[in-house]
């Protein structure tokens, strides 16, 4: 067993050293407060369990997005992806959305996915902006590579952020056309896209310390 454990340790990727992401509160259009924070490793199995039913939901391409996030979270849980992160948006402990990505190196980030479990309140838009904030403002990157796997995603990311097409650059998610958020584009759009209150209210932090699945997910 000791030999197996030692071999497994050698399979784990190195790290550039990720900085913490400070939690923030985002008031939703519903009047509720959503906490955006990092998901802990211990919470990953719950996130996987939460999105698993959506892996067979073809509406708005939830099936492929949920399936890929599930695999990416499993890779993170098993230490098989270098410098991956996962943020969760939660309202009174209920998981409202999940975003993830990773850092290729100090200068380039790779956006993975955004999935919304509570629709109609711009949860996904807020969470996407939060992870761009992490790449650009916290980790100081120069650019983030982004793809969309649904028309909604294309509208929210490529069009609204005026992303730079870089179709010759292969994204890690495959043959989907690659678009790039540059530092100049982030500076142009973050004032209208990136919202939140810091430090996060203590009562909102406390209310979202323990996460739970939505009673029902309507997509």
Automatic annotation (TrEMBL):
InterPro entries: Acyl_CoA_acyltransferase. This is N-acetyltransferase domain-containing protein. It comes from the Bacteria.
């Amino acid at each position: 067993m000791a030999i197996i454990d030692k071999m497994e340790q050698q399979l784990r990727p190195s790290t550039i050293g990720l900085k913490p992401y400070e939690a923030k509160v985002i008031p939703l259009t519903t009047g509720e407060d959503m906490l955006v924070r990092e998901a802990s490793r211990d919470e990953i199995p719950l996130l996987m369990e939460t999105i698993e039913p959506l892996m067979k939901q073809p509406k708005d391409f939830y099936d492929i997005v949920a399936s890929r996030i599930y695999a990416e979270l499993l890779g993170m849980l098993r230490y098989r992806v270098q410098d991956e992160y996962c943020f969760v948006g939660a309202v009174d402990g209920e998981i409202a959305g999940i975003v993830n990505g990773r850092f290729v190196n100090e200068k380039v980030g790779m956006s993975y996915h955004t999935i919304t479990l509570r629709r109609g309140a711009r949860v996904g838009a807020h969470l996407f902006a939060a992870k761009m904030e992490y790449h650009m403002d916290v980790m100081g990157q120069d650019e983030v590579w982004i793809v969309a796997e649904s028309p909604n995603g294309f509208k929210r990311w490529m069009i609204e952020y005026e992303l730079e097409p870089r179709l010759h650059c292969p994204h890690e998610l495959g043959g989907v056309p690659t678009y790039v958020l540059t530092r100049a584009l982030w500076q142009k759009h973050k004032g209208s896209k990136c919202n939140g209150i810091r430090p996060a209210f203590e009562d909102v932090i406390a209310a979202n310390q323990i996460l739970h699945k939505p009673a029902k997910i309507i997509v």
